[in-house]
């Protein structure tokens, strides 16, 4: 069997291609894909503690501290006293982050449109449904990318 006949090879090949392109296209915004993931989750649950974010995204708390530090340095999040736990800080999006997140979502939408251009709407829906089933079978949490837990390289 040729590599191109193996679905797992094609998934890996496309996954790397899309991940590299997404990172390249987010870079001019000063974001990495991990930042986009954190900001997206905060958009839907702003005010979570760093520990709650780490648990939600299934990353080590030290990785989350580094990501939040990056975002705070860029003025995209702020830490405030947590309303329910005086030992914790709530992480909140800033207005700048909301604007940047809309730009980053446009980048993601444009990339998705480019990558899936050969498929019609029905095929796209079918592909998404099949990928959801495979991801669920693999025990992958919805909306959490496994690369979030990786520490960034020194160059990036």
Automatic annotation (TrEMBL):
<dbReference type="Pfam" id="PF12802">
    <property type="entry name" value="MarR_2"/>
</dbReference>
<dbReference type="InterPro" id="IPR039422">
    <property type="entry name" value="MarR/SlyA-like"/>
</dbReference>
<protein>
    <submittedName>
        <fullName>MarR family transcriptional regulator</fullName>
    </submittedName>
</protein>
<dbReference type="InterPro" id="IPR036388">
    <property type="entry name" value="WH-like_DNA-bd_sf"/>
</dbReference>
<dbReference type="InterPro" id="IPR000835">
    <property type="entry name" value="HTH_MarR-typ"/>
</dbReference>
<dbReference type="InterPro" id="IPR036390">
    <property type="entry name" value="WH_DNA-bd_sf"/>
</dbReference>
<feature type="domain" description="HTH marR-type">
    <location>
        <begin position="1"/>
        <end position="136"/>
    </location>
</feature>
